[in-house]
Task: inverse folding
């Protein structure tokens, strides 16, 4: 018999980009593309979600804290997709209040695992996907099994691209800053789309001003069914 579809949390992807679709310069600099008003909104989104998820590349490049500081609210669970456990034990993630989980693929490097656990991290050992990286569907299902009902994804580009390609995103929030970089890091990579009719489309979508930036928010039309509603709905239950 076919296996039932895994229960998934509600997934919001949020990123800031330039007018020409770059989330960082070609040297990797990304702080800060968006305005102060947009940064405040990003922290409000963190406070609304149960967890915030980033790829290990974001941790190595930006050394983020992933905490709520610009608004009043709780710190979300911090989750890093880190197939080879490259997160440094002295990363800022471990200096801030709250839990940090690291999703790695089996077999796990025992020495790295011990070093991260000594800093308070929790390592999730998951089977790899076809490319040898963290299976994001399995990771999200594991989070849902731990009653993580909503996840905010903040980067990087590979993680965002994979989630969009696999239709694991339920809401997309894009902050478009009035800047042009030319060469740089693309916000979204190859989604395997060859025809315009295959383009991702959104419903309940809107644009609005956010400081000097323009903010887009919309729900992916053909996303995989989540087990939980949007965070604002979940909080009202």
Result:
């Amino acid at each position: 018999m076919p296996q039932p579809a895994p229960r998934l949390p509600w997934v919001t992807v949020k990123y800031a980009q330039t007018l020409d679709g770059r989330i960082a310069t070609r040297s990797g600099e990304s702080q800060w593309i968006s305005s102060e008003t947009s940064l405040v909104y990003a922290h409000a989104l963190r406070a609304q979600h149960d967890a915030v998820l980033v790829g290990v590349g974001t941790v190595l490049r930006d050394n983020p804290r992933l905490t709520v500081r610009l608004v009043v609210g709780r710190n979300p669970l911090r989750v890093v997709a880190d197939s080879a456990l490259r997160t440094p034990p002295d990363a800022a993630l471990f200096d801030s209040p709250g839990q940090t989980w690291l999703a790695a693929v089996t077999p796990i490097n025992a020495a790295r695992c011990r070093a991260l656990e000594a800093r308070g991290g929790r390592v999730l050992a998951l089977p790899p996907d076809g490319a040898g990286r963290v299976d994001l569907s399995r990771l999200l299902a594991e989070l849902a099994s731990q009653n993580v009902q909503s996840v905010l994804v903040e980067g990087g580009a590979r993680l965002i691209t994979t989630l969009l390609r696999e239709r694991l995103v339920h809401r997309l929030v894009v902050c478009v800053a009035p800047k042009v970089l030319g060469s740089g890091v693309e916000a979204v990579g190859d989604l395997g789309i060859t025809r315009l009719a295959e383009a991702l489309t959104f419903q309940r979508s809107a644009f609005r001003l956010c400081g000097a930036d323009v903010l887009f928010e919309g729900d992916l039309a053909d996303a995989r069914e989540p087990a939980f509603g949007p965070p604002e709905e979940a909080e009202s239950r």
Remarks:
- The CA atoms of residues 78 and 100 lie 5 Å apart.
- The longest strand covers residues 202-210.
- The chain has one domain: 10-236.
- The chain has a mean pLDDT of 91.
